[in-house]
Amino acid sequence: MRILIAFGVACLLQPGWHFMQPAPEAVQQDLPEPLSVMKLRLAGLDDPVALSKILMLWLQAFDNQPGISIPFSRLDYNLLIRWLDRIVELDERSHYPLLAASRLYSLVPDAGKKRLMLEFVRQKFLQDPGRRWQWLAHCIYVAKYQLKDLDLALDYARTLRLQTKSPAVPYWARHMEVYVLEDMGNIEAAKILIGGLLESNQVEDPAEIRFLQERLNTLADEE
After folding, report:
1. Who's near 220: CB < 8 A, 6+ residues apart?
2. What is the mean pLDDT of residues 24-34?
């Protein structure tokens, strides 16, 4: 009987006891160091494509932790890049990591972290220019409009022009360098670049030749 009474009292006191306890404090968890690609493959039962998707979803949701939402700017971007790099290695055909790097993680107000993301995208672009050109093209936009760094935008645009040889890459992307030079007020350099492309016979597509010629005429009219 005493045991039943004690149990009943404990049940009555339990809600009050929990009410009196301080609320648990939400503590930010830091990104862990990524495993090697070999260990990740073993953990993923040698299905790297599926594992890359799972890891990308986990990484993108890492800012939402129990009881706390972490701004991307508080993440360690060097670790973040190492995770993105591992995910690219697991599935080299996936665009998701580069999309996240150029369009999501580059949105932070920290200019240094923006630059880390843009440089990561440039390095991945150089490994497969024909398939990853659109992400470097977006980096030009970020450098130009968010960082207000026209020199960096010009550097990316020049890299895009020199490294993309595939006809699958649209000519507007290959010639973004012309627009950046115009924005810099360097009209003469833009005209020289277009003239050199037309005279070098590197451009064979009639539509692209027409585009360059029209752009050259427009620049001549602006002077």
Report:
1. 191
2. 66
Q: What is the domain range of residue 146?
A: 35-162
What's the CATH code of the domain at 75? 1.25.40
105 located within any domain:
yes
pLDDT exceeds 70 at position 140? yes
DSSP helix/strand/coil, 151: helix
Q: What is the mean pLDDT of residues 43-58?
A: 84
- Three-class DSSP labels, 11-22: HHHHHHHHHHCC
Q: Is 45 helix (H, G, I), strand (E, B) or coil?
A: coil
What pTM was estimated for this model as a whole?
0.78
Query: CA angle at residue 82 from 151 to 87, to 5 degrees?
Result: 105
Q: What pLDDT digit, counting tens, does each position of 94-115 carry?
A: 999 999 999 999 999 999 999 9
C-alpha neighbours within 13 Å on the C-beta side of residue 193:
22
